[in-house]
Each structure stands twice: as C-alpha cells, then as structure tokens.
C-alpha cells in the first residue's frame, strides 16, 4: 500500500519515519520531494578503459553547490535529506517529470530497503545534447513510500547503511560473484 500525505505526516510526527532536514512543502499527496545535496562522485578512468566488478572502483569526489552535467555524462549525487526507515516501510526513488523532459535521468537503482538509514545516492545521467546545471537544494525527485504487510525479518544492514554524501559503488564487496 502506498502511503498518503496524512500517514507520512503521522509517521514523521511520531518519529517512526525520520527525514532531516525537511520542510512541510516537500510532502506531496503520495510522496516526499527529495532535494539534491552538494556531493558528487565521478568514476575515474582506468588505464585499460574497463571497469571490473571484482575490483574497487576509484571515484573523484567533488563538493560544490553547482555541478555542470555534460551531455552523455554519468555522475553520482546525494540527497540533501537523511532518511531512517522503520523495518516495515520501503521506498521507491522516482524522478521528476519536468527534469526527465530535459533528458535528466535521476536513478536506475531506486529502491530503499526497510531499515535503511542514510542519505540516498542518486545516479544521474544527462541524455540531452546540452549540459544541465545542477544546484544543491534543488528538488530533483521524490520518494514514494509503501507499507510492508509485516515487519521485515532482516531489515537492511548492508554495505551502504549510514552513508553520507554520494557513495561509490561497493559491488566488489559482493560475495555472490
């Protein structure tokens, strides 16, 4: 079941759901707006031009209030907000239609597990022929919350728990190669 604004407000009030910082106008009828933070990560080039999923990938981290996303460029970014989800709630990261119409893809891995705590890393891609200027604090997407039918037996406690800032891929840590 997708949560309504009324339910989201109630959960924020009783602190079963934590979103910080947050302003009331971010709450929409069935979602919460998310804003762009000021941390960006770009994959560093490799000498052979190949990214191996078995090796740690090197990133360049940039802290700035404005980032110019070039045509065809991919960058990791972070939300301004820190989230703490209870173990019976999940969320979906959705882009804004207005930005999608400019060719800005907001995520390709937009699932937030029950029990997750941290800032959300966004995967941004510019599919346009023009550069897109990104600004910290700008509304870039929304979280849609869904209630689980019961509490998760194993809430999220993985490698991205507690992340702050744009967080690099840790796929090399996966045990199931």
TrEMBL record:
Quaternary structure (record): Homotrimer.
NCBIfam families assigned to the protein according to its UniProt record, in alphabetical order: dCTP_deam
Residues marked Important for bifunctional activity (site): 110-111
Where are the bilayer-spanning segments?
none
| One GO BP | dUMP biosynthetic process
The record places the active site at 123
Keywords linked to the UniProt accession: Hydrolase, Nucleotide metabolism, Nucleotide-binding
The protein's GO terms of the molecular function aspect are:
dCTP deaminase (dUMP-forming) activity; dCTP deaminase activity; nucleotide binding
Gene3D superfamilies assigned: 2.70.40.10
Binding-site residues for dCTP, renumbered to this chain: 96-101, 113, 121-123, 142, 156, 159, 163
Quote the pathway field.
Pyrimidine metabolism; dUMP biosynthesis; dUMP from dCTP: step 1/1
Q: Which domain of life is it from?
A: Bacteria
EC number per UniProt: 3.5.4.30
- Briefly state the protein's biological role: Bifunctional enzyme that catalyzes both the deamination of dCTP to dUTP and the hydrolysis of dUTP to dUMP without releasing the toxic dUTP intermediate.
- Is Hydrolase one of the keywords UniProt gives this record? yes
Task: State the similarity comment.
Answer: Belongs to the dCTP deaminase family.
Write out the catalysed reaction: dCTP + 2 H2O = dUMP + NH4(+) + diphosphate
Has UniProt tagged this entry with the keyword Hydrolase? yes
PANTHER family, A to Z: DCTP DEAMINASE
What's the protein called, per UniProt? dCTP deaminase, dUMP-forming
**HAMAP family noted in UniProt:** dCTP_deaminase
